Each structure stands twice: as structure tokens, then as C-alpha cells.
Amino acid sequence: MSVVNSKADRYRHNSECLHKPIPDGMANPRRAEDEREVKEKTKAIHQEKIKVVIISIIASSGLMILKFSIGALTNSLGILSEGMNSGLDLIAGLVTLYAIRMVLRPSDLSYTYGYGKFESLSSLAQIILLLIVASWVTYEAVNRIFFETVRPEISIFSILIMLLSIGVDYGRSRALYRAARKFVSQALEADGLHFRADMFSSAIVVVGLLIVLLFDIPDADAYAALGVAAVISYASLGLARRTLSVLLDKAPKGTYQEVIQAVSDLKGVTRPHDIRIRNIGFETLVEMHIEVPRTFTHDRAHRVATSVEQRIEHILPYSKVLVHVDATESVSETIFDKIRLIAAETEGIRNVHSLHVSRIYFPLSALAGFSLNSPKKQYYDASLNVEEKKSQSFINEHPLHLELDVQMGPSLDLSTAHSIVDSFEEKLKREVPQIKDITTHIEIESSVEDLRMAGTEKNADPELLMKIKEVMQSIDEVVDFKDIRVFDDVTGGQHITLTICLTSQEGTVTTSLTLEVAHKIATKVQNMIINRTGATRVVVHTETNN
Asked: Is 423 exposed, middle or buried (0-12, 13-18, 19+ CB in 10 A)?
């Protein structure tokens, strides 16, 4: 995810060597392959879910016919209520089948998150139907107990039918619960709950029928029906609570802490926050913010975000993760980092280099209006107004003078370039209060895309090579030189590039040379070649004498 603009990318590219971006040709095919694999797995999951539901629908149809037939013959409210329950299971199975087929639809412009919540809606519809049946059974049972005496005609055959129903419901509930846990499906869980409730309610009905048959207590059947209604209501309300949690986007229990613990130890990630988690169907959607140093390149920040997404997807199967990256100032950020970032955000500035700061006692404001004919002001404090004195005491240290080179496009006129630099300097002073004065050297940098500014290589003549050789021989630290190339630019100037091999002046191990010493030697070589050959630009690459 992008947090650093393209100009900041250029600053980081010019100032330090970081990870190279992943070429699109390498990243895209693998991502497309992963997406295809996910789609195939999703399709296989839904096909297996459909198979389980169809088997359940067939079983519900058979049991409904048997229960209604026996209930009508025996006039048993318990068996009739079980027949209604099986009929409800048939309707619920059809609703579940429709919901699963809807979930197969890909997301579109109307439903950008897809159709996963159709399963939760079908579960809610089944719960409502269950509660309606429980209410009717309760009403009818109370009516038979207190107002209307109905004597059921019980037979061994009716009891055998109920025992068969218990066996079928047991097998179906196990299969559906197994599939619900495997595929995280509330619709299948609702179906499994129905059949588990049916199994217990059928057992209650059998007990009631046996009491009527053995002890001749007619109301036992109605009391058994009340037990069925109670079981159905209890189980329905429990599933309703879970279903509403999904529909209201409640985060799954413990998931928030899992996400925090999973990403907190990742390199480059600080302060994960604004985490949102919700379930849609069998998928878990996670959205979150993380903070990375603002000195990171766009590519590096994107890789950090990708590592967070992969870590969460590992701990939460079937999850989709969206990470927003906040670029923040880190404790390790230096003044030079701030300067380069501000330069990268300033339109018209292509690059800055050769940054140097010094503690000052006589700021430029103290020398305002100074010329050869004006007296020099003596003291720094005398030039400070009240606000400046407050600022200085707040900093509690000597202010700084900044020197730097600013590269800009060659097509700009001096007035425009100076206006851009003035704006840049003002922003620097606001953002970095330690900096009091700034001296900016404006340079031009040709656009890489402007091939008209490209130079042309030419053969180096012997006289030029001899002059370069003489320079090399005059510097003790240079033990060899190579890769000399000469270019003519479009302005008529001459560019020379070469590589020099260095050793320490005392003849110790070559790796003992510091980068600072090597740079000084390269600068010395550069200046001497310019003086001897008249070249407009000399670029010297340094390496040790291996």
C-alpha cells in the first residue's frame, strides 16, 4: 500500500540503496494463480455443502410424510408437532440451498463484499420459522391441558416411527455440524441445530407416548409437546444470538488479540490500530492501519503491508486482509532525512545533495544590509527579536546553518527557480526549527527521459590518457586506474568517467581506508583531472586494491 509519493521514492533511491521493487511480470502471474486456486477451493467447498443440504432435504421430506400420516391417525399432538417440525426442516433446507447457491455469486458493483451474508439471513429466517412453530405447539398444548381434552390413540407403530426419526436426525445433525465446522457456515449450523432439536424433541414425544400408553395419562402427550417447544425455543435463541452477531459485524471472540499478536513482531511495523474484523459467510474480513517510518520507499512500505496481510491470512484461514499504511516520523529520523523528505515534496526540486550543517553565532539576519561600505554588526543576540529569542531558548542550543545543493530542471528561469527555493527554505525552517539560516546552491539536472540531453561517447586520444596517467602517478594512494570513458555533451563540454584503486598511504590493509578518506582522494583526483584536461565533469569511482 502506498504511503510515500513518487518524489520521495526518488529521494530514497538517490540517497541510499534499498530493496528493489518486484517487477510486475513476476508478481502478477503468481497472484493470479493464487486467486484461481482460491476460487477453485471455494467452488469445491460450496459443492460439498450443497451435497449435504440435498441429502438433508430428501430425509426431511420422508420424515415429514411419515410423521403427518401417523399424527393424523393417532391424533397425537406430539407427533403432529414433530411433523410440522420436519416440514419446517424441509423449508429450511430449501432456504439453505438457495442461500448457498447465492453465495457462489462473485462480488459485483451492487454487492462489493459479495453475497456471503445470505447464509446468515437464511439462518435468521429459519430461526423465525422455528419460533413460530414453537409458539403454535405451546398454544395447542396449553389448550389441550386446560381447555380441551384430546385423547391420542397410541400404537407401537407410532413409537417405532419416532424412534426411526431420532436415528435419522442423529445422522443428519452429525453430518451438518461437521460440515458447518469445516466450512464455517451458519446456514448449515442452523440446519444441524434443527435436527439436533428434532432428535431431543422426538425423544420427549416418545416418552410422552409411552406414558399415555402405559399409564393412561392423556395430558402426557401435551406436556411432551411443551417440552418440544421449549427445546426448539432454547436452541433457536442461541443460534439467533450468533447469527445477529454476524449480521451486526461483531468481531469473532479472541480474533482481535490474535491479529495484534501476529503482526506486532514484524519488522518495520509499529502501532497497529483501527482494526476492524467481521465475518461474511465463511470468510473473515480484516481491515487495519499500521505505522511505518515515512523515510520508507513506496515499495518497501508496500512489502511491509504485504507481510502483515500474509501473517494474518496464515492465522485466520479463509480471510481477506486490507492494510492501510500511515507514514509517521520515527525516532531514528535525522535532520538530513527531514530535509530530503521536504525536498521530495517540493514541486520543481529534483534532488538535493552535499548537505552540511554548522553551528552559528552570527546569523544572516545579523548581517542584513551588510556591504563593503556598511559597519559589521557585532553580536548575534542584538539581531534577535522577542520571538527569535523565545525560539532560541526553546531549542536550548546554538542554531544551525545549512548548506546544500539543489538540483532543478534546466528549462526553469532564475526567477522561478529562486521562488521555488525560497518556498523550500521557508518550509525547512518551519519543519526543522534548529535550522536558522540556509545557503542553497542551485544546480541543473537534466531529465532522464529527455534523450536530447544525452551525451555521445568518443574515443579517448592518447594525449588525454597521458594527462590522466600523470595525475594518477602524482597521488600516492592511487595504485591503479581503469575503465576510462570520455563523452561529449550537447553543450560542447566533455565528461570523463574512470575507476581508481586505492590503498592506505602507510601501506596497511586496504580495507582500513574509511569512506571519508576515499571520498577526499576521489575529489582530489576529480579536481586535478579537470585542471589538467579542461573537462566540464569528472566522475570517479573508487574501490580497494584487491
From this structure: middle
